[in-house]
Amino acid sequence: MKLDKVCAVVVTYNRKDLLIECLESLQKQTRPIQGIYLIDNASTDGTQELLLEKGYIKELPPNNLKEPWEKEFIINNFTDGNKIIFHYVRMHENTGGAGGFYEGVKRGYERGYDWLWLMDDDTIPTVKSLSELLEKAYELVG
Is the whole-model pTM more than 0.85? Predict the structure, then answer.
């Protein structure tokens, strides 16, 4: 049986410390994810610099964006060491939660992920959250 590709879509705005906790919890999932779409809604609190410092991204986006900027990086799952594709999208303006989720879902769908797991930057899922969610989802869809 093929392993479904799961991508977390995380929307953030000016909560860099909570964001790092969220990202670390995603990397600890017992049922590993294959991707993370981080939608940075034009944060002004140093989010992008902290992402660079922590190794989530390898370069900063250009200043004075006129449209969303996306770059793909590789991070590791802490549980099994497999790679996670980290899609960093820096928005040119704050589009709010709904706008950020729209952007992440659209991009994740276009990339062919089977499941999109949506959360804000202050969500800290337990290590079994994804496995339990998928177990219930599979029960519902057969």
Answer: yes
Which among 133, 113, 131, 104 is positioned nearest to 41, based on CA atoms? 104
- The neighbouring-strand residues paired with 36 are 8, 86
Q: Any alpha helices (H) in the chain, and if so which ranges?
A: 16-27, 47-53, 96-110, 129-141
CA pair distance 79, 126, nearest whole angstrom: 13
Is residue 108 a contact partner of residue 7, using CB atoms and an 8 Å limit? Answer: yes
Tokens of 66: 């006129």
Residue owning tokens 């964006």? 65
In this prediction, residue 2 carries a pLDDT of 62
Token match 């999932």: residue? 29
Q: What is the pLDDT of residue 73?
A: 98
As a whole number of Å, the CA-based R_g of the chain is 15
What is the residue whose two structure tokens read 């200043």?
Answer: 63
In angstroms, rounded to a whole number, what is the distance separating the alpha carbons of residues 65 and 113? 27
Which one-letter amino acid corresponds to residue 118?
Answer: L
User: Could you tell me which of 61, 84, 88, 59 has the C-alpha nearest to residue 74?
Assistant: 84
Q: What is the pLDDT of residues 90-112, one digit of tens each?
A: 999 999 999 999 999 999 999 99
